[in-house]
Glutathione S-transferase (Marinobacter salarius), 230 residues
Amino acid sequence: MIDLHYWPTPNGHKITIFLEEAGLEYDIHPVDISAGDQFKPSFLAISPNNRMPAIVDHSPASGEGPLSVFESGAILLYLAEKTGRFLPADPRARITVIQWLMWQMGGLGPMAGQNHHFVKYAPEEVPYAIQRYVNETNRLYGVLNKQLEGRDWVAGDYSIADMATYPWVVPHETQQQNLDDFPNLKRWFNAMQARPAVVRAYEKGAPWSSRPAVTEEGKSLLFGQTADKR
């Protein structure tokens, strides 16, 4: 059994997609990030960066008691290695998947995240920041579109690279991107959206997805943290 500490954000959806694809048993423990749940000592014990998702695997391969893992990319790698699925054994194919996973973790996720912040949450409009991150998101969509030319999936076969990337493309309209400008990406997006496990993964988040708009106090919790204010 796996405990998933989760909130229905792009990074949270990555993990439910994998768990649904692999058919693993898991329990969701919601972490309301706009209410400050990520700063509770019990959560910090497994996720010291006060970010979700995180997992606790009660049956790790080592057999040495429960194992906790934080950071969505690390969780995907851990689960892929645990199950032997969605991460090739062949070294060349394997590094291709890992490269694109790191591309999402270091590129698409952070840049789209800043896009979301300045377009949707910033207390005042900052045109330079909006243009900067909308343009960079657009550039990254172009990189992905090129990679998907002649390929069904990001790294060849369906993999954790697809699971990591898709949730960050779901809010493309908020990111001010038009999928019609990226035909290969749009084809891939539609194929991902239609996968039964992806549908189930998003349904898992439905109970918490229709929450009210983030309050000013919630924004302070999400965006106002420093090293001495956690």
